[in-house]
Write a structure and sequence with these properties.
By secondary structure, the chain is of the alpha+beta class. The protein has helices at 2-12, 63-78, and strands at residues 20-23, 28-36, 39-43, 51-53, 58-60. A hairpin with a 7-residue loop joins β3 (39-43) and β4.
Length: 82
């Protein structure tokens, strides 16, 4: 029973889907797309291939990292055909 309680507590501490976070194992910024089993699935803010990350390697993005991600998204969108 304690194991289920610990697992529930760990899952409740995970970032919400859509949150901007940093994968500290790879130092990459990503958007939380889903939580599958014991992994968090992240995608680059401007789009691209998802990757799996262990929850212990996820932290919220700093304001500077958030700004950088928003600039990356704006740059990617500016390259799209109109």
């Amino acid at each position: 029973m304690a194991t289920e309680s610990n697992r529930s507590k760990a899952l409740s501490n995970l970032p919400k889907i859509g949150s901007l976070v940093v994968d500290t194992a790879t130092n990459r910024v990503g958007v939380v797309m889903d939580r599958m089993g014991s992994y968090v699935q992240l995608r680059p803010p401007a789009g691209g291939r998802e990757w799996d990350c262990l929850p212990r390697h996820v932290r919220p993005a700093t304001p500077a990292e958030t700004l950088s991600a928003r600039v990356s998204i704006a740059n990617a969108e500016s390259r799209l055909p109109r």
